[in-house]
Every structure is written in C-alpha cells, then in structure tokens.
Amino acid sequence: MADLGETLNFHKYQALGNDYLVLELTKADAPAPALVRALCDRHFGIGSDGVLVPGSGSATQFSLRIFNPDGSEAEKSGNGLRIFARYLWDTRKVTDAAFEVATQGGIARCQVLDGGRGIDVAMGTASFDSTKIPIGGPPREVIDEQIEVDRRRLRFTGVTMGNPHCVVLLDEISPDIARRLGPLLEQHPAFPNRTNVQFVRIISRKRIQIEIWERGAGYTLGSGSSSCAAGAAAVRLGLCDPQIIAVMPGGELSVIVAEDYSVRIIGPAWKIAQGTVADDLLRVARRLN
After folding, report:
1. Per the domain annotation, does 4 fall within a domain?
2. CA distances from 242 to 22, 106, 163, 192, 263 (A)
C-alpha cells in the first residue's frame, strides 16, 4: 500500500458510464486490495468501477493491471483499455499512432482517433474453448448450452477474451434480470474462476442490446470485453453480421468481429477529474488492510 507520506495521484475517466481511476503509483507494482476497495467506494472513497495501474511493459511499450472494486484483479477490460489509451494520450505519452498494451489477458493494440474523441482497441481473439475460458466438464466448444439458476433454465455460450464470459440470449432483458441472475451465474460451479455475464437481446443483424453483470464489480452500465464476447457469440450463432453496434445503458460501442473471431471495439472515453488521494483515505485503507 502507498506510504502515508507518499503523494498518490489519480485521474478519473469514464467510458460508456464505466468509470475507472488511473492510479499513479511510485513505490509499488500494485495497490493493496484494501486500498482499491477504499478508493472505489462511492460513499466513503472517490468512487469507481475499478482501478487501473500503469506499468512498464517488457514485450510492449506499456503494460496495465486492472483491479475490480472488491480488490480482485481482472485480466482484461475493453473500457479500461480505452480509458488507459486516452490517459496516455492526455499525458502526451502517445500520439495518434497505434501502440500496444500488455494486460494479464493478453496484448491489446490501441489507437486514439479524432483528437481523443474515439479509441480503437484490438482486443484479441475470442475463443469458445471450455479449457481456455475455463468452464467445467469435458473439453469442448461451449456453444448454446443449457445452464440452470434460480430454478430457471437458460441457454448460454461461453467465451473468453482473455477473461471469462457467459453470454445468455433472451427475448427480453432488463437491469433487474442482470442484478437477479448475474451474481448466481458469476458464482455458478461451472465457472471455476467465476465469470462475467452478459444478457443479450438481438435487435437486428447489426444491433444488439446488452445488460451486464461484471465479475468482482456487479451491475455495470457498459463493458468493452462484454461487448466483444456478446458480439462474437452472436456471430458464432449466426444471428448477427460481423459489424455490430452494442447498445448498453451507458451508450453504444462498435464491435467488429473478423473471420478468425479476433475482435475490435471503437468508442469514446472521457476524462472526469484528476487529483491527489488524501491522507485520511489512506489511513482508512491501512486500517482495513
């Protein structure tokens, strides 16, 4: 955890209503879980859906670690990557040329567009392989399988974008459904590492609607990796064309699925504020550690 004498600076951004703190650490590779929880608390902290910690890349110029509000570490985040790219552009660490960012879930290729108004992120290749997601049972592609929660049988497709996803197609979706069934699916025994959950309604071959329950974060207004997983699943099931608009409560995101199921997303990221974490909050986090 940051020393009480250390100045701890942050930058707050949002992408599709999914807000993150970019934390500038100088003496540690990662914040303690208690500090993450304290910072993300919307009543007693700064408030956010997670914390992004820049690092020095080895195979790439930049690296990024992503932490959920409960203090756990996430492998990858599409909104987090777009926010990080915008942060790098705002702080003049990158130009409008493409660059790579290493995450726990693989390397992403990013490019800032239109003077910072849009971010293009190549998120990697979607896989439906149960051993990679992971999902219990025999090795297989997890396509349109049955799963039961709350005495309800659902059809789902398993996807990994470097992090696990459970894509559930329904005729009608709502925040209430996501909040009620999302945590049950996140913790379902079929997913040994837990999972992100997307409830998807097909609007047309070029447009889908998503409600999201995020592993370690809960109900969220938008998610880049969830849009990738939902888009890849919709294409794999033959329900959508390769270029899709994902509609979420926080806004819309363009999703492009290639023939090999590599996925790109294009959408905005906006800066909200920057500042310094007060010693009082650091002391609270230290007591909770």
Report:
1. no
2. 32, 22, 21, 30, 9
